[in-house]
Amino acid sequence: MGEVVEMFYENGFSNKVCNDTITTTTTTNSSILNVNHQDCCWFEEIIDDDLKWSFALNRVLHKGTSQYQDIALLDTKHFGKSAEVDEFIYHECLIHPPLLSHPNPKTVFIMGGGEGSAAREVLKHKIIEKVVMCDIDQEVVDFCRRYLTVNQEAFRNKKLDLVVNDAKAELEKRNEKFDIIVGDLADPVEGGPCYQLYTKSFYERILKPKLNENGIFVTQVCIYIYIYLPFAGPAGIFTHKEVFTSIYNTVKQVFKYVLAYSAHVPSFADTWGWVMASDQPFSISAEELDNRIRDRINGELLYLNGASFLSSATMNKTVSLSLLNETHVYTEEDARFIHGHGVAYNRL
């Protein structure tokens, strides 16, 4: 086993400089893991009491604590900076299905989305006239605008109205309505700032009245806010009952037509879920979706096309039955919360 030269812990990360070969032996299935590297720096997320997800790091680009959350912008060896290798899967699935399903979307309100990726995808649509991005955390917005170069053009776009405020308060005070409202929010964590934005009362009393006729609401369920290495998503075979089915059922209490869909996101270590809702039916073919992608969007999408979107709305038997049989309605008094947090870890 290689000698550990230096070890220290700082703000939840472990940094260890190692030499020679590190060998880890386990008795389970007689497996042996050999790792040969000079800089051993790992970031770990606790997915459940008996499940962890670790990332080898190139470097930590930013660490800090804002008024609302701990912040870490990480450059990982496998997924790059801010999961840049596959974040397009999540953001294309969040943004383009509602915009492509709408006959003529002009205005979009994004709740959260402080890193700018959701706005980036919205602004690919030629017919969009105005995007309001409302994030509660000024520090997150500031450092993402500085470090995430892929989104800098979106932040400079004149169609983007960037607002730092609580999304609930911002929607309440605005007189205007929107064609699309997007929930690109942090997890519903107990004591956190976002869980009220998943409740029936919020959807019914505040959000829905701010949609135009034919308006569409879409929300992801849910993303972990260690900027931006996500917590394992809750639409998988083992995780979908945490909040996914509850939020789906809650949205069904407010809108006539509700569509759940999912996709595997490698850096999320699970299948991820989205819920799209409207009082108008979603009736669009794969061919028409492809036509709208061609006609409306500047540039190429990397993940989504008509066939893949329609197939993403077909759930496996277990998840389908759970969605069908869910009775829980998400309220302030009876909320479901995601648990788990990022901690330091060094693998020896």
Instruction: List segments where confidence is low: pLDDT < 50 over at least 5 consecutive residues.
Output: 1-38, 223-233, 340-348
Helix content: 25-40%
Q: How many structural domains can be distinguished in the coordinates?
A: 1
What proportion strand?
25-35%
**End-to-end separation:** 9 Å
Shape: globular
The helix count comes to 10
CATH architecture label name: 3-Layer(aba) Sandwich
| SSE pattern | EEEEEEEEHEHEHHEHEHEHEEHHHE
Main sheet: strands, sense, barrel: 7 strands, antiparallel
What is the C-alpha radius of gyration, as a whole number of Å? 21 Å
Label the structural class: alpha+beta
User: Average pLDDT, to the nearest integer?
Assistant: 80
CATH-defined fold name:
Rossmann fold
Protein name: thermospermine synthase
EC number: 2.5.1.79
InterPro entries: PABS (IPR030374), SAM-dependent_MTases_sf (IPR029063), Spermi_synthase (IPR001045), Spermidine_synt_N (IPR035246), Spermidine_synt_N_sf (IPR037163)
Catalytic activity: S-adenosyl 3-(methylsulfanyl)propylamine + spermidine = thermospermine + S-methyl-5'-thioadenosine + H(+)
Structure description:
By secondary structure, the chain is of the alpha+beta class. It has one domain (87-332): Rossmann fold (3-Layer(aba) Sandwich), CATH 3.40.50. The protein is 25% helix and 32% strand. It is built from 10 helices and 16 strands. The chain has helices at residues 87-101, 117-122, 138-147, 152-156, 167-173, 200-207, 244-252, 286-296, 306-312, 317-325, and strands at 4-10, 13-18, 22-25, 32-35, 39-48, 51-65, 70-76, 80-81, 107-112, 130-135, 160-164, 178-184, 211-221, 257-265, 270-278, 342-345. Strand 14 (257-265) and strand 15 form a beta hairpin. Helix 8 packs across helix 9 (306-312).
